[in-house]
TrEMBL record:
Native source organism of the sequence: Amphritea balenae
Record pathway: Cofactor biosynthesis; biotin biosynthesis
Catalysed reactions, as listed in the record: 6-carboxyhexanoyl-[ACP] + L-alanine + H(+) = (8S)-8-amino-7-oxononanoate + holo-[ACP] + CO2
Protein's job: Catalyzes the decarboxylative condensation of pimeloyl-[acyl-carrier protein] and L-alanine to produce 8-amino-7-oxononanoate (AON), [acyl-carrier protein], and carbon dioxide.
Keyword flag Transferase: yes
Name this polypeptide is given: 8-amino-7-oxononanoate synthase
Gene label: bioF
Lineage of origin: Bacteria, Pseudomonadati, Pseudomonadota, Gammaproteobacteria, Oceanospirillales
């Protein structure tokens, strides 16, 4: 059988402006990047605090490699669990105010592993309809009855919880929605869950480092306690500037994951040097409050500038500031018009976001300057005129 049919399907994606294309980055993560041989000012990285390229984080990685070598060598349960991993887990447990934390090699794997260790076909999982793909996939893989409630709508969630007679009920949501930038309505969602004896799992991939006291994320922001959000996930590839993820929670939760989470058990541990680098970034993330202050200042300035231009934003208090465009083709045109002016921002299209909700996903970082932000606003104004947005 030939691949002709696949070729036709790929061509159709191109016609619909849905084709995804990789670009080659030839510089470190920073506001000024080199992509495919050209220099750009980038507003699409998740390196929200500017730690991915921080000298102390790089130095910790180098020292870690000298001490432990490069590869993790084996899974955590064989002999891949190093002192570096263990120390980072203890520091993450303290950071999140929970008895234990467990490292995973990626956020995708943490979500798949945690959900599938907790529920199966006797159970039900309730997901915000715009949850990250890894949460949705985790729920589908579990075989539990899968339900999506309206975005951030605790009433709609509660109606569904009320009707369910499943053995276990797990409510799952992003802490900061990855394509919208808004926060989960945690008080209302957790109240609804509590009334119906359901567990709450929050994936705060984009909240840690950016919001809450000392960057402690959305649970801290809403002053919630560990018994209101029993399963807390964080990823390390965003504000932490490194790679990997963790789940934090009770002794029983973490021990259950060690016993049953297949994406923990059957994979090589992250390189120990990455754990050492993350320990350095965790210290910086907590100590350097100025990074969050600067980020918040840039967010306010960006939002005010967009309002003046009449661009449509989402009500987001986070560094994720999507500009809503509508059709995929228009989003691609805008992205290209910005690229012509030396600005790099990805167009996000279906199926990552719902039909008709294509957008430019602008992300801000504490490493951007005010001047760079003003360059972005000028370029947006020009692109808007060119594309008739
Ligand atoms: N959860 C959310 C909300 C995310 O946005 C992402 C990554 N974009 C992930 C999980 C996956 O994390 P990782 O990149 O570490 O696999």
């Amino acid at each position: 059988m030939s691949f002709d049919q696949l070729g036709e399907e790929l061509e159709a994606r191109k016609q619909q402006s849905l084709y995804r294309q990789r670009r080659i980055l030839q510089s470190p993560q920073a506001p000024e990047v080199q992509v495919d041989g050209k220099n750009y000012l980038a507003f699409c990285s998740n390196d929200y605090l500017g730690l991915a390229n921080h000298p102390q984080v790089i130095s910790a990685l180098q020292k870690g490699a000298e001490k432990y070598g490069v590869g993790g060598g084996a899974s955590h349960l064989v002999n891949g669990h190093s002192q570096a991993h263990h120390a980072l887990e203890e520091e993450l447990a303290e950071f999140t105010g929970r008895p234990k934390a467990l490292l995973f090699s990626t956020g995708y794997m943490a979500n798949i592993g945690a959900v599938n260790a907790l529920i199966d076909k006797r159970d039900a999982v309730f997901q915000d309809r715009v949850n990250h793909a890894s949460l949705l996939d985790a729920g589908l893989l579990s075989g539990a009855r899968f339900q999506r409630y309206l975005h951030n709508d605790a009433k709609n969630l509660e109606t569904r919880l009320q009707r369910s007679e499943a053995r276990r009920k797990l409510v799952v949501a992003d802490g900061v929605f990855s394509m919208d930038g808004d926060l989960v309505d945690l008080p209302a969602i957790s109240d609804a869950a509590q009334r119906h004896n359901a567990w709450v799992m929050i994936d705060d991939a984009h909240g840690f480092g950016c919001i809450g006291k000392g960057g402690r994320g959305v649970v801290d922001h809403f002053d919630m306690t560990p018994d209101q959000v029993q399963v807390l996930v964080g990823t390390l590839g965003k504000a932490f500037g490194t790679s990997g993820a963790f789940v934090a929670g009770s002794e029983e939760l973490i021990e259950t994951l060690v016993q049953h989470a297949r994406t923990y058990i059957y994979t090589t541990s992250m390189p120990p040097a990455v754990a050492e680098a993350t320990r350095a970034s965790l210290r910086l993330l907590q100590q350097e409050e100025w990074r969050r202050e600067k980020l918040n200042h840039l967010i306010q300035r960006f939002r005010a500038g967009c309002e003046q231009l009449g661009l449509t934003l989402i009500d987001s208090p986070t560094p994720i500031q999507p500009i809503m465009v509508g059709e995929s083709e228009k989003a691609m045109q805008m992205s290209a018009a910005l690229e012509q002016q030396g600005i790099f921002i990805g167009a996000i299209r279906p199926p990552t976001v719902p039909q008709g909700e294509a957008r430019l996903r602008v992300t801000l970082s504490a490493s951007h300057t005010e001047e760079q932000l003003d360059r972005l606003l000028d370029a947006l104004e020009k692109a808007q005129q060119e594309c008739g947005l």
